Amino acid sequence: MMASGDRQSLTGLRVLLVEDSYFVAIAIAKQLKDLGCAIVGPAPSVESAIQLMRKEPFDAAVLDINLGTETAEPIADLLVESKTPFIFVTGYSTPRLLAQPYRAHRRLAKPVTPELLRDALDSVINS
Amino acid sequence: MDWMLLTSSVLQSVAALWAGVLLARRRSGPSFVLFLLFSLMALRRLIDLFGVSSGSDSHDLRALMQGIVLLISVVSVLTVGWLEYSRHRRGRGEREARLLASAVEGSATAAMITSAGSRAEDRIIEFVNDAMLALTGRDRASMIGKSMAEIFGPESEEEAARACHAIDLALPLVTEAVMPGADGGTRWVSCSMSPIRAEAGPPTRLLWIKHDITERRRIEDELRKQQERYQRIVETADEGVWLVDAEWRTTYVNTRIAEMLRTNPADMVGRPVTDFVFPEDIPALNERRRQRERGARGQHDERLRRADGSELWTIMSTNAFFDPKGRFEGALAMITDITDRRATEAGLREALQRLSFHVNNSPLAVIEWDREFRVSAWSSGAQRMFGWEAAEVIGKHPSEWRVVHEEDQEEVARVISRLHTGAEPRNLCLNRNYTKSNETIWCQWYNSVLFEPDGSVNSIVSLAQDVTERHRADERQHMLMLELDHRVRNNLATVLGIAQQTLSVSGTIDEFAGAFTGRIVSLARAHALLSRASWEGVDLFALCSNILESAMSGPAPRVIAEGPPVRLTASQSGILALTLHELMTNAVKYGALSTPAGRVRIGWASYSTGPECSLRIEWKEEGGPSVAQPTRTGFGSTFIEAAVAYELKGSARFAYDPSGFQCELIIPLPACTFTPGKGVLTGATA
């Protein structure tokens, strides 16, 4: 029953999605929508993500670590500051691009599945 | 009787008697003359006396008597003169004999007179002097009258024969023999025998003069032994001994030097030293000879020529001799054979040179450290690798100059410590080092310790290899592995996204399969190009010709692409590959390429937008069917607009001109890769 309760808890959850790849962003957005989430974004860069964060409220975030020529760390810093739960998604198997504080953070390897997304978001929201 | 006459006669007789007594006592000439004179005067008085007493014709008798007396007087005087002369002569011979006897008597030379017997037993001692008594240690009584054999022992056959021979011929004989000495020991004497003989005839006496030569013999013996000792030393010495005279001619050589020169001593004596050197060495030899003649001592390496013409290398130590006036008399050289040693040395030197050559030509840095880990040798390779010259680092500990990277200093200290304590006789260390020009290089160090027999460290040798390139390659390799992982995962995510998107707009599974395959193949081609370019960007023209393929090739290409070289990033090339694919698909299905006459022109150019640059790409169709505004937006246009905006921060614009479809893409470039303004644009959408 916890599972259904959890699933319900994602419904209406406003999720900020930061992902530089167009097709990946579309795919994750669709998965999140299927989980009942409302998408804020997606944003392909740190700059556009920060603009979105100022304009739109959200409950959680899904961050692609590698945004081409930059990383999502500045966004993560802001989220930690505002105590907003978030998860990372990344193409890398190792957390080498991340600074030390984020290496132990909840992280999903691409490609992601709706189930993985749901469990990861669940855990960061409830912790 | 005439009393006066009688008295005179008596007095003269008494005087003659007195003179006779005197003569008998003194036996001298004047006393004899006086005796005769007084005797004659006494006789005359007697005659006178008789003449007076007889009386008659005494006058004639008296004259006769006076004549006789006169005659007797003259004869007497002559006789006395002769006797006196001969006595004088005899007296001198006796004096000489006495002098001689006393000289012999008192002489320090032992002398002895014996009878002239042919054998020692027959030679009876008649006279010995004090020195002879001292020599034999006897008194006179025990010698006089004894035979020589009794006193001096029997003589040998040979001695007897020689003595016999000398006596027969009345010749002196000198011999040396042993005799019993005064102290009971034996003594060596030199014995000289001189036969003594009367006016003629065989010798009657033998004079023996004996000298004690025991001391001389002892010294001679000592000298002889000493000489033998020296001779033995010289002959058995491992050094060659070579004596030369003032003309540098060989006077003596020992066997050793002759062996060294492969000849024998007899063949060397008398020959000049120049016979034993190589002609080219003679000037140097002459110079040294002049120095020796001036008194300079010295030791030097000298090359000699053996009898067989081969080389003999020696250490020659030469001393010159000078006479009391300082004139050069000759020289003595002591010679050591160092031919083998030189060969060994030459071998070692050559081996060392070879080693040194290889060490210095090795691409590795070869560094030797002493027991305190201070640099003791620094090869040319080390200089090439690190930049410092040997003189700048010899004697320094690695902590004393900036050679080890700060972050690796702890690890290097640990490695050194393990070598030092003997925990590891050899080890490896990969660390960063600084060069003199302050560059950081990665070095692989191979260290090994040379221990003393007591286990302490003698030295440490390190070979260092600059592995900076390899290290970079390793890092790049690692990065590539991670990047590959990332890209594969991203691509799979992208493929998943494309699949989902394609699926959402496909009516049938066949439609999905065709569209999906085309998109994935375009993406794959863009990847292939990127891969070929080592992920460093793809040229736009190459991308066009790859995606549009056959349409751009052949004698009459249906798509013509023109523009300056533009390097696209991985992200740009992926999106543009799909964009070109969608535009092409659309053109073939509905646009210009759906009819045989239709053509597509692609052109691009850059233009400046303030500090940045933008790339404008135009797609222009012509010669196809008349174009009308579409009633609904398909996947292609939706994707192009969204993806170019989302991923490339650019924009896409479509124009549905009746003469042909046109598309314009504006894409910001991170940097202007070609001169802005140049390019090939159709101007359709400008």
Write the topology of this structure:
The complex is a heterodimer of chains A (127) and B (686).
Chain A: H1 2-10, E1 14-18, H2 22-34, E2 38-43, H3 46-55, E3 60-64, E4 66-67, E5 70-71, H4 73-81, E6 86-90, E7 107-109, H5 114-126
Parallel strand pairs in A: 1-2, 1-3, 3-6, 6-7
Antiparallel strand pairs in A: 4-5
Chain B: H1 3-26, H2 29-54, H3 58-106, E1 110-115, E2 125-128, H4 130-136, H5 148-152, H6 157-169, E3 173-180, E4 186-196, E5 205-212, H7 214-236, E6 240-245, E7 250-253, H8 255-260, H9 265-268, H10 282-293, E8 298-305, E9 311-322, E10 328-337, H11 339-361, E11 365-369, E12 375-378, H12 380-386, H13 390-393, H14 409-420, E13 426-434, E14 440-451, E15 457-466, H15 468-505, H16 509-532, E16 538-539, H17 540-548, E17 559-562, E18 567-568, H18 570-589, E19 599-609, E20 612-622, H19 635-648, E21 651-657, E22 660-669
Parallel strand pairs in B: 17-19
Antiparallel strand pairs in B: 1-2, 1-5, 3-4, 4-5, 6-7, 6-10, 8-9, 9-10, 11-12, 11-15, 13-14, 14-15, 16-18, 19-20, 20-22, 21-22
- Judged by helices, strands and strand pairing, the structural class of chain B is alpha+beta
- Helix amount of chain A: 40-55%
* Contiguous uncertain segments of 5+ residues of chain B: 682-686
Tell how many strands the DSSP assignment of chain A holds: 7
Mean pLDDT of chain A: 82
| Strand line-up across the major sheet of chain B | 2-1-5-4-3
Give start-end ranges of low-pLDDT stretches of chain A.
1-7
Total number of beta strands of chain B: 22
Q: What is the first-to-last residue Cα distance of chain A?
A: 19 Å
Number of alpha- plus pi-helical segments of chain A? 5
